[in-house]
Every structure is written in C-alpha cells, then in structure tokens.
Recover the amino acids of this structure.
C-alpha cells in the first residue's frame, strides 16, 4: 500500500471514530431495539491501527501497552473480510444444530445460558499474525502492534460443545462439523468432530462481560489454539457432516502454498513469542537495568519454557513465567537485563508442552525448504509464520525490527 | 428395622447419588425440534459431492452477461483484473502452474480443489454491494460509515438469494470457462458441476486429506507442522537473521 493511501485510510479511520461517537445516541432507535447498546468505541489505538486493506478491515491489539495475560475486550484484535459486525438482537438469535444427528435442535440464547457454563482463558490468533504479507516488504512492521498485534487473550465463558453434541446424538459417519455465522457472508468453516468433542466451546461471555459485538456477540465458536478464522463469530448453525466441505476461506485465503504443495486445514497454531518491552520504536534513555517482558503462546498446549537472548543469539537464558499458566493461552514472561549501551539484538523463543520450539527465521527457511530471500520476494500470503522476532537496540537506545535486517 | 442397618443405608445413598448424578448429565439440554422448513431455509452449505445443489442450469455464455453487470466492477471484465484496491483475493482467473513458484497466484482456477466451492460462495456471499432486505439484521461496523457503501446480508431471512439458481450456475460456469476448465457452451447443473475436474484437485494438496474417523481420546493432527523438534540441531551461535532484500 502506498503511503498516500495509508495516510488517507488513517484519516478516514479517525473520522470514523468521531462519527461513531456522534451516532451512538441514535443507534437505539434504529430497527429492532438491541438488548444491549455498545455505544461509541473510544479506543485511541484503532484510529491509527485500523486499516482497510483489499476488502479487509484490520484492528490489532497494542501488545506493548497491555499488562498481564488478559487482553481488554475492547482491544481484542479483529480482522474483518467485509463480513461486517452484525447488530444482532440476542433475544431473537437462534442456534440450529442439525445434519447427521438423531435429534436436531434449535436453541435460544436463554436456553444455552441455562446449561452448565465453564470459564476458560484462551488466546485467539490470526493465522497470518507476525507475517504481514506483501506489504511488509516495502513497509516492515515497526512496532509490536504491527508485527504481532493479531493475537489476543480472554477469559471466555460458555457451554462446552460436547454437551450439545452428546445431547443431539451424532450419527455414525458424522466426522465433521460445519460452523456457520449469521453475518452478511454467512462465513462457514469445516471443523473435525475430534476437536469439537475435545475442548471446543460455544461462548457468550468475554472477560466477565457479554462477548463484544465485533468478537461475535451473542455467540461464538471457540476452538482453543486453532487459527482465528475457524473461531466462527455470530454463530447460528452447526451441521454434522461426513467430510470437510471445502469452504471458500479454507481452500483459498487461509492455506499455505508451500513450494512442494498446498497445505490446507492448518488448525492448531505453532508456538510463538515476542518481546513487548522493549520493542519496536521504544527508546531506552541510557545504559542500566531494564525488565524485558513479553508474551508467549502455543496452539499445542501450555508454554513450557521461554528463553531470551540479549546478545544477538549467542546465548539464551530461561525467562521467568508468570503464573498461573493456562493451556493455549498467552503466557507472560520477564527477565531483568542490564544494558551496557552497546548495539545488540534481543529476542525470545518459546517451547511448548509438546517440546515444539519456535524457530528462528533461518530455521524456518530450512523447514520450508526455501532460499533465504523467499520471505521477502514471494507473493504468497503465509500463515503460521512463527519465527523468533529479533529487536535491534542501537547505541542511542532506539529499538528496531530486525526480522529481515542483519 | 433390619433394612435400615447402617451397612445397607450407605450403599443405598451411594446408589441414589449416582442416579442423581446421571440425571444431571444434561441429556435433556432444552431447545426444541426445528421444523423441516426452518432447517431448509438455513442449510445452505454445498459439499464437494454437490448433494445439496438445487435444480437449475447455466452456461458460461449466459454467465458472461451477468458477470459484466454484477461482478466486473470489483473483479474486472473477465475476473482476472480485479479493481485496484480490491486486493488479490478478488482475482478469480489465472495462476495455473504458479503455485510451486515463489510468485504463486491464488485463484479459484489455480488453487481450489472443488468447483462446488465457487457455487457455494456466490450464493452465500455475492454480490458484495447489494442487499436482500432483512429487518432482523443491520450492520454497525465503522467501515460502512467511513465508505458510505451500503452493506447487508446477501441472503434473506428465509434463505433466498439475490441470484436465482440458474444465475449462480451461469456465473460459476463463466468463472470455470475463463480459467480454461470447461467449454463456453458446457451446461452446469447439479449433475455436471460436481464432476468438473479442477486443476489443483489431485496435484498438490498435502497432506492428503483422508477423512479422519473420530474416536474418543484420539489426538488430532496430521499436518506437517512448521516447528522444529528438540532434536533439531541449533544453528551456529553467530548465524545472522536472513538478509533483507531492500
């Protein structure tokens, strides 16, 4: 995207925020009265961070400005393939479960909330997080918001999907589930029944409140640890089927075209981590003691270990992990670091409970069997790019993105 | 009384407790049985075998006329030249043979393994900038306020599409024809469409997708994971990140 367009969009986004404030007063009278009015979005970060790129509205979480492991609901990232946030009246919303089941059922939200609820802390990350596609060649991400802001973590409340699937009685041969949204594009995804019966949730609560409209109000499918696109928002239909249905976003955009073939159904995300302080565009006022901190995650389970290197990758030391540590959730790490005023590179790498280790970009180059210039030249949009994020500290104490700069 | 001996009472209490626990397993989860019509209105998914496709038919020739009217504005006259700003996702035509290169062009013609996906997506989501009135749903996204574009559902409350089944078959045929997959006069209908052999059907999908059979306790995970294992040799300590191409 050229800079003119970028500037224009930033202005447009800011104008949008102002407009939203002006209009919120009249929102209640339009159409059906919503049971809950969300009002204006005063989020100061999204004026600059929200961009409309090729039919997609993107909002990222300002990872350097949040604390602990929970992302405030209003700062949860959102990527919107023009599916647009529907204004759903929860009293009228229904969930239909049908297909290869003994007893198809249709539920109101009240009925779903009558069932036993669970609250669990899980992260959701976009499959494309930390790789920004073609645009990142000309405009490498400068801040951690730009590089890794498409991951967020909440305490989600809802009912386990297995409770409902056991009740409707999945028939023999029913091995997949189609989850479909009430949004304008009727976004649909194929989910293996194994995941649905394992730890999938139908959530209506986020961080103690109702789930945010842009996060799927009143009901969202939560597939802990799996790529964001499968966590269907505004959920209204579940159909048990015998095979994957190859919907548009699972055969098109959210696939990995690798040199030896196309991977689809990427599912659980690889282990990742990033130092959020100090990170891109931060400034260290002078040599001295700094507390390096950041976030780690893995779709494979709990974060087992985070190592930090402050000497351009020569040595690695274990960081301290903040407890409690939840599976498939953001995990906060930290380590004291005495900066001597010299130029260096700081970076973190995550190891999860399965022993999977976050690779450096050089290691990822080997795994993909590509040449080192691949990441900067390909027209491919890459998913599950989980390379270690190096931040370069210059002598003035300025922090720069060093992912592709030696 | 003999039967109230402590020896008997405790097992009886345990038994009762077990029965109570069973009753709480939520076999009755509430909800109600939907009518056939309710299911029919919502069940819009079309799978790779095309079992759900409705009657109707169309050809690329017919589709070309519709495409010019309704689709070319974003996708370009033949689907190969999306309007600047729409992004690569709007490209519908071309790219065959590019997937294994560094410059892959991902389109339905080059990438998608089944033609049924094209039909399914046109019905559920296209055309983008027209709406079927649905009083139950409006949109509150800032995007429509910024751009002033009218957005809304492409399917009405009872599942009706903006487009007839014939029109969707015709548009699907046009996209397949422009990708050199079918002939211009080939008739697409519920029998012929699922049989269309897409270029990427058998070539490059890895791992192959045998339908996994679900059993309790079986762990999911067949994909090749872009992770390194603990046994991988670490790179030499002085290795640098990849050099940037300016």
């Amino acid at each position: 995207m050229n800079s003119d367009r970028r500037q224009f969009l930033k202005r447009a986004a800011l104008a949008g925020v102002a407009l939203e404030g002006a209009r919120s007063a009249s929102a209640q009278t339009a159409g059906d009265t919503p049971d809950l009015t969300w009002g204006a979005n005063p989020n100061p970060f999204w004026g600059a961070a929200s961009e409309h790129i090729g039919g997609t509205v993107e909002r990222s979480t300002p990872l350097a400005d949040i604390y602990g492991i929970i992302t405030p609901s209003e700062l949860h990232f959102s990527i919107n393939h023009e599916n647009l946030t529907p204004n759903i009246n929860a009293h009228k919303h229904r969930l239909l479960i049908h297909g290869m089941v003994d007893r198809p059922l249709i539920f109101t939200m009240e009925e779903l909330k009558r069932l036993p609820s669970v609250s669990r802390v899980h992260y959701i990350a976009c499959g494309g997080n930390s790789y920004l596609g073609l645009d990142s060649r000309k405009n490498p991400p400068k801040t951690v918001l730009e590089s890794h802001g498409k991951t967020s973590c909440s305490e989600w409340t809802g009912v386990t999907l297995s409770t409902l699937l056991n009740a409707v009685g999945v028939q023999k041969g029913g091995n997949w589930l189609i989850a479909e949204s009430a949004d304008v594009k009727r976004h649909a995804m194929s989910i293996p029944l194994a995941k649905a019966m394992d730890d999938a949730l139908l959530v209506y609560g986020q961080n103690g409140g109702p789930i945010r409209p842009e996060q799927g109000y009143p009901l969202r499918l939560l597939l802990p640890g799996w790529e964001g696109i499968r966590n269907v928002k505004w959920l209204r239909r579940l159909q048990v089927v015998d095979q994957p249905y190859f919907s548009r976003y699972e055969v098109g955009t959210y696939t990995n075209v690798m040199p030896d073939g196309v991977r689809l159904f990427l599912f659980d995300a690889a282990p990742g981590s990033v130092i959020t302080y100090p990170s891109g565009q931060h400034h260290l006022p002078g040599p001295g003691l700094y507390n390096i901190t950041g976030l780690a995650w893995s779709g494979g389970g709990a974060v087992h270990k985070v190592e930090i290197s402050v000497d351009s990758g020569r040595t690695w030391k274990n960081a301290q992990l903040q407890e409690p540590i939840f599976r498939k959730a953001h995990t906060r790490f930290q380590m004291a670091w005495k900066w001597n005023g010299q130029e260096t590179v700081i970076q973190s790498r995550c190891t999860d409970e399965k022993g999977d280790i976050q690779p450096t970009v050089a290691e990822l180059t080997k795994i993909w069997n590509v040449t080192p210039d691949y990441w900067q030249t390909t027209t491919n949009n890459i998913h599950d790019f989980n390379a270690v994020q190096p931040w370069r500290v210059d002598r003035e104490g300025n922090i720069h993105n060093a992912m592709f700069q030696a | 009384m003999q039967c109230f001996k402590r020896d008997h009472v405790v097992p009886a209490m345990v038994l009762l407790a077990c029965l109570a626990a069973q009753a709480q397993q939520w076999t009755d989860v509430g909800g109600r049985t939907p009518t056939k019509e309710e299911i029919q209105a919502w069940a819009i998914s079309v799978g790779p075998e095309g079992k759900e496709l409705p009657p109707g038919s169309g050809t690329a020739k017919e589709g070309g006329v519709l495409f010019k009217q309704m689709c070319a504005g974003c996708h370009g006259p033949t689907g190969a030249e999306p309007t600047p700003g729409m992004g690569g996702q709007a490209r519908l035509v071309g790219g065959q043979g590019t997937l294994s290169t560094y410059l892959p062009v991902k389109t339905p013609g080059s990438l998608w393994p089944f033609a049924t996906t094209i039909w399914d997506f046109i019905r559920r989501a296209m055309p983008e900038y027209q709406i079927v009135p649905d009083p139950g749903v409006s949109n509150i996204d800032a995007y429509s306020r910024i751009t002033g574009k009218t957005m809304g559902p492409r399917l009405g409350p009872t599942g009706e599409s903006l487009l007839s089944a014939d029109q969707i078959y015709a548009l699907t045929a046009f996209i397949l024809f422009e990708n050199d997959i079918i002939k211009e006069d080939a008739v697409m209908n519920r029998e012929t469409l699922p049989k269309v052999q897409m270029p990427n059907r058998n070539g490059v999908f890895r791992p192959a997708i045998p339908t996994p059979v679900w059993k309790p306790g079986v762990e999911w995970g067949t994909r090749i994971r872009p992770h390194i294992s603990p046994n991988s040799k670490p790179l030499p300590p002085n290795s640098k990140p990849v050099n940037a191409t300016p």
